[in-house]
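Quick one, probably user error.
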């Protein structure tokens, strides 16, 4: 099975120079996804040869919610070019930002879609919602046609909030899946990994099959989702009895919420809990070194809490989970979507 990115290094360079010329940019800050970091030197070199100082950032980048405009400003850049992710309409960055989206061109064998159809039908499902990450969105129409040939009803939902395209899902926004939830028995996710399909399961509770169009692998993510739910309940119950909380904030423009921070702080005061407020840009194991903390409350990406909990030696919860924990409303847990 063949796959390739729809733009190569030459094409990326041309598009960057075209954007810089249009914007009259002489020094630009370029964010690249992890999969392109090995090309950072060559990309910067080529752009510089074209007369623009291209500063390529190879710091970890977690999506269009993670645009460090203050770094670009400090470096004297007049433009940010973000490569690899779709823009998020609801996120307002106080800097000039342009996006170069990266799509995959995948030749999916029809027999693999036939196997996928048989799997779905054998599970008793007759209608499915089709979702994908932005990189695989170009496959949705093709896969839909083939699935329908095998007798399935297929729906591609409308996105809202920070998701830009119909059928698109983010790790923190599954609005397209939600919009068709009453019409479908299950969902098919087109892409790689389980990060995004688990989000669909946590938010909606219906079966989700992750289909990798490159390898042909099919994975039911329900067990993974249920494991997350069990851990969430356990951490919330511990938080309900805890006395000392560290509220951890990030300054990532699409993840931090001042409103949620204020709500969390007011709740901690109301329930007479001790608390601190700690800033950590990339939230990780450094929290394990902190003393006299019972629970960490993350005001940032909720997926840090859902997916990375094994990195931490103490319970870690979202801001909304804290509110439920203090009120002991554990059954009201919902997947935290970012607006």
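Nope, works fine. Designed sequence:
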């Amino acid at each position: 099975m063949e796959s390739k990115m729809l733009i190569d290094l030459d094409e990326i360079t041309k598009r960057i120079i075209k954007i810089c010329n249009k914007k009259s940019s002489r020094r630009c800050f370029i964010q690249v996804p992890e999969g392109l970091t090995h090309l950072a030197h060559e990309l910067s070199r080529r752009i510089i040869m074209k007369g623009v100082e291209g500063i390529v950032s190879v710091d970890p980048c977690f999506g269009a919610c993670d645009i460090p405009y203050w770094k670009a400003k400090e470096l004297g850049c007049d433009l940010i070019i973000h490569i690899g992710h779709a823009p998020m309409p609801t996120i307002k960055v106080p800097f000039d930002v342009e996006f170069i989206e990266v799509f995959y061109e995948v030749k999916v064998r029809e027999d693999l879609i036939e196997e996928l159809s048989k799997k779905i039908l054998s599970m008793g499902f007759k209608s499915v919602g089709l979702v994908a990450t932005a990189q695989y969105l170009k496959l949705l129409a093709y896969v839909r046609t083939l699935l329908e040939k095998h007798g399935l009803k297929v729906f591609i939902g409308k996105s809202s909030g920070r998701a830009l395209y119909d059928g698109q899902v983010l790790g923190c926004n599954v609005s397209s899946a939600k919009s068709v939830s009453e019409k479908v028995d299950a969902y098919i996710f087109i892409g790689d990994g389980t990060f995004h399909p688990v989000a669909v399961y946590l938010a909606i509770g219906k079966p989700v099959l992750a289909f990798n169009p490159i390898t042909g692998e099919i994975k039911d993510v329900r067990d993974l989702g249920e494991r997350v739910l069990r851990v969430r309940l356990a951490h919330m119950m511990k938080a309900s009895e805890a006395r000392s909380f560290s509220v951890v904030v990030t300054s990532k423009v699409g993840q931090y919420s001042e409103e949620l921070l204020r709500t969390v702080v007011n709740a901690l005061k109301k329930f007479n809990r001790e608390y601190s407020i700690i800033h950590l840009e990339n939230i990780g194991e450094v929290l394990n070194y902190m003393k006299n903390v019972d629970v960490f409350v993350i005001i940032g990406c909720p997926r840090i809490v859902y997916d990375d909990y094994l990195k931490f030696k103490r319970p870690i919860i979202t801001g909304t989970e804290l509110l439920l924990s203090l009120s002991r409303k554990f059954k009201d847990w919902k997947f935290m979507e970012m607006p």
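Residues 222-241 form the longest helix (20 residues).
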